[in-house]
Specification:
single chain; 368 residues; alpha+beta; 2 domains; 6-stranded mixed β-sheet
């Protein structure tokens, strides 16, 4: 059946049937989004410190991402306990070590796991020591962790040598990088990497997109849009900076649960046609919560403070660019529907779908 025939069949349905079809489509999309939201991408990080002939690395990786080791979670409770970790640590190190390589002037003469611990219920932190035959003047890092996790896996890393710090993002298309330990890092490379990271974070953060859709579907003018986007930007920029600099930090579970509730609240307001607080004001309050969510990715990298300002700035600019691009796509559609017979039905259907989705996220996050 052609697209024109499908459209004709759709518009010939009674309004209630049209609404049901829209809602069904939303729920189907929501089902896909919830699966994606659980693991929108696979991610690990490392912090390396170069000192003479030694390189100390702290590598963090989610053990449930290791598809080559499905038996790690023996009792299938989606958590890794210390007994499970202790029994599998040698296999974990062998798997990770074969896909994460650190080289100086040559390969290390010795690699040691000095310590390992659980960073949270599913993530392990490995403290590794690499010893080389001579002083490390250049360092080459290669990550092919996508081979044992997911093809979209990305590895966030920083390398410190003396007063110099370098950052990079390794992934399938760019699995390795090389730094001169005696020279300064490339500010343009840092700027570009974190700018791209911010854009990707928006477009893979389905909860943040759902929040924006919940706001946009009930925004009737460009003036209202400007106030909402500005208040959200200012608010999340404040808490993003505070959390990244460790001034104010909330537990991840609390932050993620509050984000889900903020999405549900905005969508419920759309359904009830009521406003307890003006939209831009409530957006500011919830934007503060979302900023803590944005900060998680930078805090995981444990970036040194001397490069933190540039990384934070470029990441936040990337978040704003991604957000503005998404608004530029969605808002014209909302304006096109404004004043039409479709407007209320679409707003209700979309808002109801968002409420269902956000409450699922809340239950998933608050009661894992």
């Amino acid at each position: 059946m052609s697209r024109a025939s499908l459209w004709s069949a759709y518009v010939s349905r009674p309004p209630r049937m049209q609404l049901c079809l829209v809602l069904l489509s939303l729920l189907l999309l929501a089902g896909g989004a919830t699966r994606a939201r659980a693991h929108p991408f696979s991610q690990s990080s490392s912090v390396l410190v170069v000192s003479g002939r030694e390189v100390r690395a702290t590598l963090t990786i989610n053990l449930l991402d290791l598809h080559s080791m499905p038996d790690l979670d023996r009792n299938r409770d989606h958590r890794i306990s210390y007994p499970e970790l202790d029994d599998a640590i040698e296999r974990i190190f062998a798997a990770v070590g074969s896909h994460f390589a650190v080289r100086g002037s040559g390969v290390p003469i010795q690699t040691t796991v000095e310590r390992y611990q659980l960073a949270d219920e599913t993530t392990v932190r490995l403290d590794l020591l690499y010893r080389f035959a001579s002083d490390v003047t250049t360092i080459d890092i290669t990550s092919t962790l996508h081979a044992i996790t997911q093809p979209n896996h990305r590895h966030l890393m920083s390398v410190t040598s003396g007063r110099f710090t370098h950052e990079a993002i390794l992934e399938l298309g760019r699995p390795s990088t090389t730094f001169d330990t005696a020279g300064g890092g490339s500010y343009l490379r840092t700027l570009g990497s974190f700018l791209r990271l911010g854009v990707e974070h928006i477009f893979t953060g389905y909860d943040h997109l759902a929040f924006l859709v919940g706001l946009l579907v009930a925004t009737a003018s460009f003036r209202s849009l400007t106030k909402i986007v500005t208040s959200f930007t200012v608010a999340h920029s404040i808490t993003l900076a505070l959390a990244t600099f460790d001034a104010v930090v909330l537990p991840t579970r609390v932050t993620e649960s509050l984000i889900a509730l903020s999405i549900a609240y905005v969508a419920a307001e759309n359904l009830l046609r009521s406003r307890a607080i003006e939209r831009y004001r409530i957006t500011f309050l919830f934007g503060l919560v979302h900023g803590f969510g944005f900060s998680a990715i930078l805090r995981q990298m444990q970036l040194p403070r001397r490069n933190l300002a540039l990384s934070l700035f470029s990441f936040n600019v990337g978040v704003e660019l991604g957000q503005l691009l998404f608004v530029a796509i969605v808002f014209p559609m909302m304006m096109y529907l404004a004043g039409s017979a479709w407007q209320n039905r679409v707003r209700s259907a979309v808002s109801f779908g968002i409420v269902c989705l956000s409450m699922y996220w809340f239950a998933q996050r608050a009661f894992p």
